[in-house]
Amino acid sequence: MKKELNILLIASYFNIFGFGFFGPIYALYVKEIGGTILDTSLSWAIYSLVMGVLIIIFGKLEDKILNKRKMIVIGYFILAFGILSYAFVQDKTQLFIVQIINGIGVAVLNPAFKTIFSKDEDKGRESYEWSLWEGGEKIMLGTSALIGGIIVTYFGFKIMFYIMFIMQLFGALISINILSYDNHKKHKHSNTHTISFSK
């Protein structure tokens, strides 16, 4: 397995593990800040719609003018900030804003992540290496869902958000390592031109 692919997997695992704490008990959190069932649905709809529309936009931009590796790193840091923001939400309006932030984070991250991941896959091992991401994601989600419930039961939502933030921050910091691969490829490309020119 290529080293960059390994970095992508580890960063993704930290990110998903952090996010998974929250998924099954999101509605309880919305209720705690004074929201209703409708507010829960609306906030999730805002997150999904923002994410869906912007994924298409960023997908096009990342193919044409944006550096994919940098977008992966930026996306992870946006998501870490979004998770931390949950700890300071006091009403549904603030919740909607945080959901927009998280939608932007996923939209920045996902097209670039999937493109680089696909390029890094080893020929003949594509299904296995893709399964490491998909299967690993489900394992992280299942494990963190249980842990999240335990943390909230005994310590409350704020402590959970701080732990989630730390997990996602680790993922973001790990993802920074992929930037060196972009520089390496540019350097290699530059050297190729220099050799050709000298001939």
Describe the structure concisely for a colleague.
This protein has 199 residues and is an all-alpha fold. It contains eight helices and no strands.
Using DSSP, what is the number of strands?
Answer: 0
**What proportion of the residues is helical, as a percent range?**
over 70%
Order of helices and strands: HHHHHHHH
- Average pLDDT for all residues: 88
Relative strand content: under 5%
Number of alpha- plus pi-helical segments: 8
- Low-pLDDT ranges: 187-199
Head-to-tail CA distance between termini: 35 Å
Based on CA atoms alone, the radius of gyration comes out at 19 Å
Structural class: mainly alpha
Q: Can you tell me the overall shape?
A: globular
Largest sheet: none
